[in-house]
């Protein structure tokens, strides 16, 4: 199903890299017309980043770019030229939303800042996504997923006791916090415009957005004045609470005991009768005090078994457990994802058939059907003629002058 819930909404989308394009992809997947304004000379860095089909780099061969730009149309322009900026202004006149994730001042230098844009489209919804927001002592600093993870405190929480901060394994701000907060804000602004006729500017600070997703760690400091410790996969409240090595190469199972009854069930299952009978271990406080001993007993049992068998045995007695899956396992062997039709396969002129993640829900029991991502500049002529009404001679002249880059 290709839902058309947002049909009739048009984006002049100047976002690039990770968080911005992911936020506008949400709208494209639901039927909005997202026109990605990009450059073939100052290329979106994600187009230049892998993984590439067959390991061969190319502007249209990045799986990362493809996953973040499904359903969009691409227009390739030289925005350093006045003619290129004039095309964007013409496009904005027809757009409901103008989006960017540049640093403060970048859009103003292009003559496309909010005050200029609202002169030509008074009811525009204008999304800006700088790292620190558009004002303040640090507003001119730039950042990417890793640096945002650092300055928000996220990295201070991930790592092991006595060790350095570690990244969360992916650019979490780019893939979760910032895109979805931006989408929520745009939807709210569009609803406000529908009710009042007034547009607005959204100044989304990616640092603030990421802090919102950290969870109770900030509250711990606020309420107790104590900094949370880095515990790796352990917990300050429950034990055992960790990942345990299983039989086979790099095979693990996560096990979490949240109640004393679950501990008793775990101890019986692993054959640790002495630990099960030890009154000191009957409470979480006691198990935390002897966590190394407890984890060693669990490890002796798990290391002799397949991870799937460990998970099944513990879940059968009410103990939360889950195999630590890798991407191949998820894509090729996970029966639940296969049953729900989570993975989608799209044909592409250069990527050929590739696998994509679906939006994480079904609507009336149907998946949101994705449309393939664009080649760079693939829709330039189509947009300039079909939306802006430029004739063939004008388009040819713009291409000859280098204003149209692809």
UniProtKB/TrEMBL annotation:
<dbReference type="InterPro" id="IPR044855">
    <property type="entry name" value="CoA-Trfase_III_dom3_sf"/>
</dbReference>
<keyword id="KW-0808">Transferase</keyword>
<dbReference type="GO" id="GO:0008410">
    <property type="term" value="F:CoA-transferase activity"/>
</dbReference>
<dbReference type="InterPro" id="IPR003673">
    <property type="entry name" value="CoA-Trfase_fam_III"/>
</dbReference>
<dbReference type="InterPro" id="IPR050483">
    <property type="entry name" value="CoA-transferase_III_domain"/>
</dbReference>
<dbReference type="InterPro" id="IPR023606">
    <property type="entry name" value="CoA-Trfase_III_dom_1_sf"/>
</dbReference>
<protein>
    <submittedName>
        <fullName>CoA transferase</fullName>
    </submittedName>
</protein>
<dbReference type="Pfam" id="PF02515">
    <property type="entry name" value="CoA_transf_3"/>
</dbReference>
């Amino acid at each position: 199903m290709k839902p058309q819930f947002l049909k009739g909404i048009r984006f002049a989308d100047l976002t690039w890299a990770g968080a911005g394009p992911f936020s506008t992809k949400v709208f494209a997947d639901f039927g909005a017309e997202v026109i990605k304004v990009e450059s073939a000379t100052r290329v979106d860095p994600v187009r230049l980043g892998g993984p590439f089909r067959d390991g061969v780099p190319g502007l249209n061969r990045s799986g990362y770019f493809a996953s973040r730009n499904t359903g969009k149309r691409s227009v390739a322009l030289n925005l350093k030229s006045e003619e290129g900026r004039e095309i964007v202004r013409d496009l904005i006149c027809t757009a409901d939303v103008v989006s960017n994730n540049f640093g403060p001042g970048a859009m103003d230098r292009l003559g496309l800042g909010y005050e200029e844009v609202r002169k030509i489209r008074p009811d525009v919804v204008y999304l800006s996504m700088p790292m620190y927001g558009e004002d303040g002592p640090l507003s001119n600093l730039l950042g990417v997923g890793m640096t945002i993870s650092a300055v928000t405190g996220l990295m201070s929480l991930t790592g092991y006791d006595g060790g350095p901060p570690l990244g969360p394994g992916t650019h979490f701000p780019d893939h979760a916090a910032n895109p979805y907060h931006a989408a929520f804000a745009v939807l709210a602004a569009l609803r406000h415009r529908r009710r009042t006729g007034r547009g607005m500017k959204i100044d989304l600070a990616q640092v603030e957005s990421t802090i919102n997703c950290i969870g109770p760690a900030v509250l711990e400091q606020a309420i107790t004045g104590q900094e949370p410790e880095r515990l790796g996969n352990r917990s300050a409240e429950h034990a055992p609470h960790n990942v345990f090595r299983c039989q086979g190469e790099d095979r693990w199972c996560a096990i979490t005991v949240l109640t004393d009854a679950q501990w008793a069930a775990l101890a019986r299952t692993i054959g640790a009768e002495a630990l099960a009978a030890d009154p000191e271990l009957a409470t979480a406080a006691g198990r935390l005090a002897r966590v190394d001993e407890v984890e060693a007993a669990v490890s002796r049992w798990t290391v002799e078994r397949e991870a799937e068998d460990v998970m099944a045995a513990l879940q059968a007695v009410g103990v939360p457990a889950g195999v630590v899956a890798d991407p191949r396992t998820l894509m090729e062997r996970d029966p639940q994802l296969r049953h729900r039709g989570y993975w989608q396969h799209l044909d592409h002129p250069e990527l050929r058939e590739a696998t994509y993640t679906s939006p994480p829900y079904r609507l009336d029991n149907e998946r949101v059907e994705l449309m393939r991502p664009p080649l760079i500049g693939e829709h330039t002529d189509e947009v300039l003629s079909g939306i802006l009404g430029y004739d063939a001679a004008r388009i040819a002249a713009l291409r000859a002058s280098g204003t149209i880059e692809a």
